[in-house]
Specification:
Shape of chain B: globular
Strand content of chain B: 15-25%
Helix content of chain A: 25-40%
CATH class of the largest domain in chain B: Alpha Beta
Largest sheet of chain A: 5 strands, antiparallel
Shape of chain A: globular
Oligomer: heterodimer
Distance between the termini of chain B: 58 Å
CATH superfamily of the largest domain in chain B: Aldehyde oxidase/xanthine dehydrogenase, molybdopterin binding domain
Radius of gyration of chain A: 18 Å
Helix content of chain B: 25-40%
CATH topology of the largest domain in chain A: Uridine Diphospho-n-acetylenolpyruvylglucosamine Reductase, domain 3
Order of helices and strands of chain A: EHEHEEEHHHHHHEEHEEEEEEEHH
Bound molecules: flavin-adenine dinucleotide
Number of helices of chain B: 21
Number of domains of chain A: 2
Structural class of chain A: alpha+beta
Strand order of the largest sheet of chain B: 3-5-1-12-9-10-11
CATH topology of the largest domain in chain B: Aldehyde Oxidoreductase, domain 4
């Protein structure tokens, strides 16, 4: 690590002010940022620790869904009775992130702000028609992720909370990278009335929807409805652990499993 | 068992409270007054000329004490890191042994090769300054794959090793093998890769060098499995420090798996630098450095053929292996793919003729050396995969073909065609215990049940044998070892009857502090808490060859027995004097010395007191004190053996393999502490499963970069990757040539497991016409094998 200054504001306004310095970095649960710092891959002048900002915490029921503070740890989402009762698929997604230590530290805001192509939450943001509230505006979930490690956030903009709509049925099926345990392919399927959303993470540079799957499932919400359907391997990620065509294959397999789990 | 903590008792490890409560003393925990911190500048290139090093900015940085390079070491006449084993090629020429300097001299040969060191007041200052060292590299073409290294166009790693060849070695009777193949009714063949692994000890390597100008003494504290060996190698060959001026301490060490046997350049650098700057110097690897620079394991590419008669009896085995040694020869590297590998190719079978050829090559990768099992897992994997293929070719059940070819217990001692003489073992018995244990007969029903769930089930055997208890010094010497391989122990009774044992074995997770203490408690009837085991310090231990090759109990324990014999002999004389009896009338049992036929007796404590307060003592005949030392040189290797059985379930939609059952039936000879033995077997099996399904060290042959340089990509097995194991052992076949009858258990799990897992995986995929898959059987590889299956089979 290189040297940096450290602040722990207790209000969102103070955090925003502290984050104005262009070399400052917001610190969520630190599960991505701290390893980056330890490996000297980043050199922020200041860390603004968000853990003291009360407005960014907590899970509450709102009309049509749930609002989850950006500084809510994955373990809190996983274990929340409210989440389990309202959107069990979201709780189970959180329970499948990384390992226990990561879940006890990592936060929802940090995860979506980081926009790792293999992170789990982006699939939920898109499939659950979420809106992201920041210190200055509200961003539709569909517009939030703009590319690999890229979001609609402006420099210094802080995610305050994420509002998810309660689906009729939903499930998340994840094929884990055996080493890192991030998603090689994760598919979140959610049925909202007549509309079905299928959001895929891990497979490409950023989360994407599969219109063909969605149409088939809107007509017939069963795994069989996906028989013969697949995504193109073009533009999918390829690495040591999975080639693009294997990932393409897994998208269909995981989508079917999600549909089965959603019941 | 007279003593509750004696031989055969599952005593909980005495060291555990220390470790589990964070009170271990590891090298990085040592802090010295005025200590400095050292950080390496390492090559980002796999192969390059170092045309210049500009340290001026680094030297001007805050806190920097010195920046040192290979040129500084050369000026101080620091030598090359020595290689402890010399192999001769088929043509009689010695292996190529290029220089291996602690800091590169003009050329770097793998990513991570050390170029310079920065020493500063704090570690962060040293890190900051290391980034300011400007190295002028001229990149050279590189090669990381052994198969490409042997081609004519391959870049040359060392000028003195043409064709990148270190040696081209062979073992066995080629003519007899050729003749047998000419008559074979069946031939089974296999081409396989034994994947390269990173050892991943929990504690990264670290070294602390100190120099005391008042007496000219150096002290090196280091993460080593064998401090005396480091003292010898570094003192005599690298730094020119005589033994009496060099102390090497290996305190608590957090796992080694072989990777901490070797003498590494960093040890020499901190020791040399400590004198040069006149202050203690500490280096601790970060995890990235561990990935890049700990000696890796395995990395073989092999072709093998088994000739059989009509009934599936093995007639001859022919093996040819290409071994990747990395960029330089690590301490014992040349011996691993030769005498620790090809000598095990008989396995448990009475194959009459065996011929093995091994070419070892240099590549632009980290050095490769012993890693848990060292050569023997490679041999076991090759034979056991080949035997499964042979069963298919001969149309035999896989348990049956093994049974048909086992060396019978009645043939012991058995001389194999590849140099070893097995002393004991009943391989059929291991299988007899295993088959009902795993309900082999019920497998078909379990397979059908899996199929009903859409899963493919497979079962695999591995009937392994290994050579441990390394090693008879004269044999090892004749085979090229440049060291003896005995062990030393000293047993010191204190006046009040407590005991300190000094052993040359080194515990870095094996639990010697418990097992060795059990031996003493049993022998002398002393409470186990009155016994202390001291290891890992050349200033305290008379001598030692350290711990590797499952040798601690078989060799170090035997030395301890010899020392205890000497203590007992002297104690008996003292007892005879004290009890006014003839020595021949003294009977010894559990530490009590009794005049035969009387109730006159003494405990060892009474005798120890008299030995140190010799008021009633045979001073004419004996010296005071009760402190004896012994060396033990084994007469043969020991041969742990067993039968591992693995069952897997494969999800054909994703290719994910799950190990659903794993059983091990082992013959370790006599067992001193069943709990520790079981723990060793568990850990070993997990490493074997890791190699088979998860772990893979990958270099990009084009860029020469290590692609699996962190846990994000290098997959270590976790608890949820493995099932609960069923572990059994029997003690019917004790080792015949050491006093404890022990064979060793440290590597067995790793040696046997990979083959059992892969045999199960291939069995599960046999319906798709799959006859072999290389490790690790990753989901994509398995899925692809299913996709590539012949359509007729796949439709089945
Ligand atoms: C071993 C390991 C395994 C993991 N496995 C998974 C996995 O399986 N699935 C998965 O989805 N993730 C995984 N993660 C990632 C982890 O779960 C975190 O979600 C992720 O690291 C980011 O969250 P964080 O709170 O730790 O953010 P930090 O690391 O603190 O920050 C990440 C980035 O987000 C910014 N940031 C943080 N909070 C906010 C905010 N409120 N507003 C705007 N910007 C913000 C920071 O400035 C930084 O740029 C894993 C991580 C590790 C170390």
């Amino acid at each position: 690590m290189y040297a940096f200054t450290y602040q722990r504001p207790s209000t969102l306004a103070d955090a925003v002010a502290a984050a104005q310095d262009e070399d400052a970095k917001l610190l969520g649960g630190g599960q991505t940022l701290l390893p980056t710092l330890k490996q000297r891959l980043a050199q922020p002048s200041a860390l603004v620790d968000l853990s003291g900002v009360a407005e960014m915490k907590g899970i509450k029921a709102v009309d049509g869904g749930l609002e989850i503070g950006a500084f809510t740890r994955h373990a809190e989402v996983a274990h929340s009775d409210l989440v389990k009762a309202t959107i069990p698929a979201l709780a189970s997604l959180a329970e499948g992130i990384g390992d226990r230590q990561v879940r006890n530290m990592g936060t929802m805001g940090g995860s979506i702000a980081n926009a790792d192509p293999s992170a789990d939450y982006p699939s939920a943001v898109v499939a659950l028609k979420a809106t992201v509230t920041t210190d200055r505006r509200t961003i539709a979930g569909d517009d939030f992720f703009t590319g690999m490690f890229e979001t609609a956030l402006e420099p210094g903009e802080i995610v305050k909370s994420v509002r998810f709509s309660t689906p009729d049925k939903a499930a998340y099926a994840k094929f884990r990278n055996p080493a890192s345990r991030y998603a090689i392919v994760g598919v979140f399927v959610a049925k909202h009335g007549a509309e079905v959303r299928v959001a895929v993470t891990g497979a490409a540079g950023s989360v994407f929807r599969v219109p063909a799957f969605e149409a088939a499932l809107a007509a017939n919400f069963t795994a069989e409805a996906l028989n013969g359907l697949s995504v193109s391997a073009d533009d999918l990620n390829a690495d040591l652990h999975a080639s693009a065509d294997y990932r393409a294959h897994l998208v269909t397999v995981m989508a079917k499993r999600a549909v089965e789990a959603a019941g | 068992m007279a003593n509750p903590n004696g031989v055969g008792a599952s005593v909980r490890r005495l060291e555990d409270p220390r470790f589990l409560t964070g009170r271990g003393n590891y090298t990085d925990d040592f802090k010295r007054p005025n200590m400095t911190h050292l950080v390496h500048v390492r090559s980002p290139y796999p192969h390059a000329l170092v045309k210049g090093i500009d340290a001026s900015a680094a030297l001007a940085a805050p806190g920097v004490v010195a920046v040192l390079t290979g040129a500084d070491m050369e000026a101080d006449k620091v030598g090359s890191l020595p290689c402890g084993w010399q192999i001769h090629s088929k043509d009689g020429s010695p292996m190529k042994e290029p220089g291996h300097f602690p800091l590169a001299r003009g050329r770097v040969r793998y990513v991570g090769d050390a170029v310079a060191v920065v020493i500063a007041e704090t570690k962060d200052q040293a890190r900051d300054a290391a980034e300011l060292v400007v190295v002028d590299y001229e990149e050279l073409p590189a090669v990381t794959a052994s198969t490409r290294a042997v081609t004519a166009e391959a870049p040359q790693v060392h000028d003195e090793a043409p064709g990148n060849l270190c040696y081209d070695w062979h073992l066995g009777d080629k003519a007899a093998v050729d003749a047998a193949f000419a008559q074979a009714a069946h031939v089974a063949t296999i081409d396989l890769v034994n994947n390269r692994l990173v050892p991943n000890a929990m504690e990264p390597r670290a070294a602390l060098g100190e120099y005391d100008p008042s007496n000219g003494e150096y002290t090196l504290t280091t993460t080593s499995q064998n401090p005396h060996v480091i003292r010898l190698l570094m003192g005599a060959f690298v730094l020119g420090i005589p033994e009496h001026k060099l102390r090497v301490v290996a305190p608590d060490v957090g796992g080694g798996f072989g990777s901490k046997i070797f003498h590494y350049g960093e040890e020499a650098v901190v020791t040399w630098a400590a004198k040069k700057i006149g202050r203690p110097v500490k280096w601790t690897a970060d995890r990235s450095e561990s990935f890049l620079t700990d000696a890796h394991g395995r990395d073989h590419v092999s072709h093998a053929e088994m000739a059989m008669d009509q009934d599936g009896h093995f007639l001859a085995l022919r093996v040819s292996t290409l071994a990747n040694l990395g960029a330089y020869l690590s301490t014992f590297a040349p011996s691993i793919p030769t005498y620790l590998y090809a000598t095990l190719l008989a396995g448990q079978y009475k194959t009459p003729a065996i011929y093995a050829e091994v070419k070892a090559v240099f590549t632009n990768t980290a050095p490769v050396d012993a890693y848990r099992g060292a050569g023997r897992p490679e041999a076991c994997y090759l034979i056991e995969r080949l035997v499964d293929i042979a069963a298919g070719v001969a149309g035999l059940d896989r348990a049956e073909i093994r049974r048909r070819n086992f060396i019978p217990a009645s043939a012991m001692p058995y001389q194999t065609p590849v140099a070893l003489q097995y002393d004991s073992g009943d391989f059929a018995k291991n299988l007899d215990i295993a088959l009902p244990l795993v309900d082999y007969d019920g497998f078909a029903a379990r397979k059908a049940a899996s199929k009903a769930k859409g899963k493919l089930r497979g079962i695999g055997f591995s009937t392994y044998i290994e050579a441990c208890g390394i090693a008879p010094s004269n044999v090892a010497g004749a085979l090229g070892a440049r060291a003896g391989l005995y062990e030393c122990a000293e047993v010191r009774f204190h006046p009040t009857g407590s005991v300190t044992v000094f052993t040359g074995s080194h515990s870095h997770g094996q639990g010697h502090e418990t097992t060795f203490a059990q031996l003493v408690a049993e022998r002398f009837g002393v409470p186990i808490e009155n016994v202390e085991i001291v290891h890992g310090d050349t200033a305290k231990i008379p001598f030692g060859m350290g711990t590797y090759g499952s040798r601690s109990l078989a060799v170090g324990g035997s030395a301890l027995v010899k020392a205890m014999d000497k203590v007992e002999r002297k104690a008996k004389k003292i007892a005879a004097h004290m009890l006014e009896a003839a020595e021949t009338d003294i009977e010894v049992k559990d530490g009590r010395f009794t005049v035969a036929g009387t109730d006159k007796s003494l405990g060892i404590g009474d005798i120890a007191l008299q030995a140190y307060v010799p008021h009633n003592f045979p001073l004419d005949e004996l010296e005071p004190g009760l402190d004896e030392q012994a060396f033990y040189d084994p007469k043969n290797f020991t041969y742990p053996n067993g039968c591992h059985v693995c069952e897997v379930e494969i999800d054909p939609d994703t290719g994910v393999t799950q190990v659903v059952a794993f059983s091990a039936v082992d013959d370790f000879g006599n067992v001193i502490n069943p709990l520790i033995v079981e723990g060793q077997v568990h850990g070993g099996i997990v490493q074997g499963i890791g190699q088979a399904l998860l772990e893979n060290c990958v270099y990009d042959d084009e860029s020469g970069q290590l692609l699996t340089g962190s846990y994000m990509d290098y997959c270590m097995p976790r608890a949820d990757d493995v099932p609960s194991f069923t572990v059994r052992y029997h003690e019917d076949q004790p080792c015949t040539h050491n006093p404890l009858g022990v064979k060793g258990c440290g590597e067995a799990g790793t040696i046997g497991a990979s083959a059992a897992v892969m045999n199960a995986v291939v069995d599960a995929l046999s319906a798709f016409g799959v006859t072999h898959l290389d490790m690790p059987a990753t989901p994509e590889k398995v899925w692809r094998a299913i996709q590539n299956a012949t359509p007729a089979l796949a439709a089945e």
